[in-house]
């Protein structure tokens, strides 16, 4: 049967840069993150062919499920849930023919998609027949929050379709959601992140929902309104890694050596707080002294992440190369490969940046030369 389009919803959500405090934030310590100008784009089209069609070209998937058989699985989750149920995940994996222990990107994406879809539409008399297409500017699984951008866009689009939230045209011509609606989007983004990551802090989905820059501590968000313009170079080592595995590795170390790990996590928190003070004191432009101190904090933070066991030789290579140019860098996100950021003081010359980029490219790394952080959160695109 050919499908005819009824409704179309387009949503985009940003990736994130954790400036300081990754991993420590999972233990309630402070972390600071900002939205990136790299975004993920989801297009949802309502169809009439009775299927749920999922196109995820970044992870090489195009699958479809018959709605009638999905509706008949014994799924107990609901919109009121604060977390996912393991039994429901098993039911979904069985339904989709996915191995129970698979952590493959495409499988995590399908399971989290089906979970959010079933939870949101469970009590509706008719489930919508859909074609969902998702494409990202972000590298998948590299520390820039691709999972959160996926989780947040998906939650926003499905909640909008179900009528649980209602997008608004804002004064500056953009269409997004009220703060109240964003709380609901963020809650579902977090549930989706939990399915992908295991035990996330919630910082990634929060920044992807709200945008700008924020501090998270003990699960509480503080929006950093006075964040100065900050330029960074992003470097993707392209070494594959899984956030779930890295977070679980730190947990294992913490459980075995809590007395050793706790001071490391506290030192990371002290770094985050020092950096926050610098950002707040230099709310428009960071001073030379500010950049000097931030550089020291970036170095210390990178070394402490190495001490936690989430470093990688490729990330140390980035740090070593940037040091030759008088610049400072650290891994960002879960580590173990993936991305690092390089702090770019405002007086850095274009020549220096282009030589640095060339040297990093020659090592096989991808480089986004000069990125500013603090962009918009989730948006309904036209
Ligand atoms: N573009 C995408 N298409 C499909 N799934 C995605 C996409 N981006 C992220 N994901 C999902 O998120 C997972 C990557 O998350 P994670 O390991 O946390 O890395 P990241 O640091 O990029 O968030 C993938 O395994 C996949 O399940
Ligand atoms: C390591 C951690 O602090 C960030 C993980 O980010 P990413 O998935 O690597 O982009 C985990 C978390 O905060 O949930
Ligand atoms: Mg992630």
Describe what you observe in this structure.
There is one protein chain. By secondary structure, the protein is α+β, with helices and mostly antiparallel strands. The protein has 11 helices and 14 strands. The protein has helices at 67-71, 86-96, 105-121, 146-162, 179-197, 203-210, 243-256, 258-281, 288-308, 313-324, 350-362; strands spanning 8-20, 31-46, 51-56, 61-66, 130-136, 168-169, 175-176, 213-217, 220-223, 231-236, 329-331, 339-344, 366-372, 379-381. The strands form 3 sheets. Strands 1, 2, 3, 4, 5, 8, 9 and 14 form an 8-stranded mixed β-sheet that branches. A 4-stranded antiparallel β-sheet has the order 11-12-10-13. A two-stranded antiparallel ribbon has the order 6-7. A hairpin with a 4-residue loop joins strand 3 and strand 4 (61-66). Helix 8 (258-281) runs antiparallel to helix 9. It is globular, with a radius of gyration of 21 Å. Residues 1-5 have low confidence and may be disordered. Bound molecules: adenosine-5'-diphosphate, (3R)-3-hydroxy-3-methyl-5-(phosphonooxy)pentanoic acid (PMV) and magnesium ion. (3R)-3-hydroxy-3-methyl-5-(phosphonooxy)pentanoic acid is lined by residues 18, 22-23, 25-26, 143-145, 147, 197, 200-201, 203-204, 243, 247, 333-334. It catalyses: (R)-mevalonate + ATP = (R)-5-phosphomevalonate + ADP + H(+). This is Mevalonate kinase. GO terms for molecular function: ATP binding; metal ion binding; mevalonate kinase activity. Belongs to the GHMP kinase family. Mevalonate kinase subfamily. Pathway: Isoprenoid biosynthesis; isopentenyl diphosphate biosynthesis via mevalonate pathway; isopentenyl diphosphate from (R)-mevalonate: step 1/3.
């Amino acid at each position: 049967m050919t499908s005819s389009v009824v409704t179309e919803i387009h949503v985009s959500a940003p990736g994130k840069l954790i400036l300081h405090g990754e991993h420590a934030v999972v233990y309630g310590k402070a972390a600071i993150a900002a939205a990136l100008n790299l975004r993920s784009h989801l297009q949802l089209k309502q169809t009439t062919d009775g299927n749920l069609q999922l196109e995820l070209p970044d992870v090489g998937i195009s699958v479809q499920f018959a709605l009638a058989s999905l509706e008949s699985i014994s799924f107990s989750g609901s919109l009121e849930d604060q977390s996912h149920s393991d039994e429901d995940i098993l039911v979904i994996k069985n339904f989709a023919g996915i191995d129970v222990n698979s952590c493959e990107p495409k499988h995590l994406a399908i399971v989290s998609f089906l979970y959010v879809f079933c939870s949101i539409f469970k009590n509706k008399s008719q489930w919508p027949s859909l074609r969902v297409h998702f494409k990202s500017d972000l590298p998948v699984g590299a520390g820039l929050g691709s999972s959160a951008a996926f989780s947040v866009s998906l939650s926003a689009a499905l909640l909008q379709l179900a009528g649980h939230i209602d997008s608004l045209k804002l004064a500056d011509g953009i269409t997004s959601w009220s703060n109240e609606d964003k709380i609901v989007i963020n809650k579902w983004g977090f549930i989706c992140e939990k399915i992908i990551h295991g035990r996330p802090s919630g910082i990634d989905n929060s920044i992807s929902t709200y945008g700008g820059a924020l501090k998270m501590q003990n699960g509480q968000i503080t929006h950093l309104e006075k964040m100065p313009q900050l330029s960074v170079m992003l470097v993707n080592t392209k070494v594959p890694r899984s956030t779930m595995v890295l977070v679980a590795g730190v947990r294992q170390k913490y459980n075995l050596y809590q007395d050793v790990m706790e001071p490391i996590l506290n030192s990371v928190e002290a770094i985050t707080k020092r950096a926050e003070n610098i950002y707040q004191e230099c709310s428009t432009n960071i001073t030379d002294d500010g950049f000097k101190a931030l550089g020291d904090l970036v170095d210390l933070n990178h070394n402490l992440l190495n001490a936690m066991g989430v470093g990688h030789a490729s990330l140390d290579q980035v740090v070593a190369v940037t040091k030759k140019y008088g610049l400072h860098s650290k891994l960002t996100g879960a580590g173990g490969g993936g991305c690092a950021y390089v702090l770019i003081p405002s007086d850095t010359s274009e020549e220096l940046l282009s030589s640095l980029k060339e040297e990093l490219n020659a090592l096989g790394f991808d480089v986004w030369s000069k990125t500013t952080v603090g962009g918009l959160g989730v948006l309904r695109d036209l």
